[in-house]
Amino acid sequence: MSAVGLFxxxxxxITAVSLMIxxxxxxxxxxxxxxxxxxxxxxxxxxxxxxxxxxxxxxxxLFLILGLFDLTGFFSDDAKVRPLFNxxxxxxxxxxxxxxxxNQLPAFLQMENxxxxxxxxxxxxxxVNLVLNFLFVQLLHWEAFGLALASSLGLWVFFGVEAQxxxxxxxxxxxRVRSLRWAETGEILKTxxxxxxxxxxxxxxxxxxxxxxxxxxxxxxxxxxxxANNLLGIVWALPSGMLAVSRxxxxxxxxEEDRRTLTDVMRVMVRRFLPLMGAVCALIIVxxxxxxxxxxxxxAEPVYMMTVWGLRLLPLxxxxxxxxxxxxxYGQASGKQVYVHVLSALDGVVCVVVFAAxxxxxxxMNGVYLASFFNGxxxxxxxxGYAWLKKKGFPRxxxxxxxxxADFGAPESDRMDLSVTSIEEVVCVAERIQRFCLAxxxxxxxxxxxxxxxxxxxxxIVQHGFAADSKSHSxxxxxxxxxxxxxxxxxxxxxxxDPSERQQLAEDGDPAKNIGIRMIFKIARSVxxxxxxxLNVLTIRI
Length: 542
Fold this sequence. Notes:
The protein is an alpha+beta fold. The chain folds into 3 domains: 1-192, no CATH class; 217-409, no CATH class; 413-541, 2-Layer Sandwich (Heat Shock Protein 90). The chain has 21 helices and 5 strands. The chain has helices spanning 2-35, 38-68, 81-93, 96-102, 105-111, 115-139, 143-167, 185-216, 219-235, 237-256, 259-286, 288-292, 302-313, 318-333, 337-363, 365-391, 398-401, 423-439, 444-465, 499-508, 515-523, and strands at 415-420, 475-482, 485-492, 526-532, 535-541. The protein has a 5-stranded antiparallel β-sheet, covered by helices on one side. A hairpin with a 2-residue loop joins strand 4 and strand 5 (535-541). The chain is elongated, with a radius of gyration of 26 Å.
């Protein structure tokens, strides 16, 4: 476990690199989705995979050199731990590629509405890892190398389950090397850097904490810290999954300038993610001793109670970390670079290391554990204080806490959201859209055309999309008045249907067919179709 603990800063560094690429890619993809720029979307996907593949090759070479030539004195000079750490590095080198590339795929699977595949991949990893740990460590006695090898082979299974969908030919996103535009690499790294800075700071934090623990507690503290963090690492998959969905939704919302959805993402975090994470953390705290026995059996050993207290105190920081992670993600997506860096530095290094340095002399390892909780309090205070300073008053609404610019998107008074579940509702909704347009000063002709466009397209979805299967469906309609334009956004969860393709077929074929669709393309300033998170999204400007 000391070898595992010493590897923690390296693990943080790999995670930082992974997040930099995935964060930048997802934010750009979200904006391109919101703007219906399909070629750019495909280019970012291909660049993402190639960049991570190249970086994984560099990490593999680095691990092999450090482990084979015993160049790890920088991490530990303990004569018993260092050889184990060298072998652990060699085992980890086998899993670098599936770790880096596999961490990129969940967000892209979410775009394809295949998020459940990530859950299947995660469960497969856990099962394979447990079985191979028993085989390599318990039966074959391969010690640290076996522990790392089990994790690496589990990561290959995780990667294989995810990658199979993109290899099947069913995915919209494809790896395209020939038409690759490498110039966008800089934009991916620049966009992802602020979010990854958090893990970059955590790499430094992890290294400094290891030095503090060795100096004031000893290797036994490293072992306890590693055991507690490894168990909690499984639980961290939950908020990481939450954040993956939130990041994509935020990026799409910013691309569409959708103020309500952007704030709704944060409201879901507060109302659902936080209570769920609080319940999970309470369960961990209650089960601290049984969980400790997975690693250590003798309560008389100092490492036993150190691990127990780690599982009682470290979970306290997790709900607050969800708040921090979401606001960093929002700051990253909205281009608030300084905000993200300051928040990341506070969380990554300053708060934890300072609190740990002040308390470790008095209460030992518990000081290190409590430092993470105090860190969560400070970062939350910073988020509220920043909004208070910018708005010159205490933030009372979510958009004020997020400091969303006043000119972002359309205000509530200039938008209307409606839902259609049957053909009978289509005409009523069309009339409401006409009244909305007239109330906002739109001339009668365009008001009529807006209602007619919605009636034609939504009616087509209800008649054909709803009848395509036995599932329950609905059509969500949004009408926005902005910059003298009337913008209609029609979203449904039926089978994919691109009206532009049908319109093209009608133009080339029988002029009596698809008259409604052709009419919409004639009267609208622009018509854009895209698939977002498995939903058909049609945007019409009149």
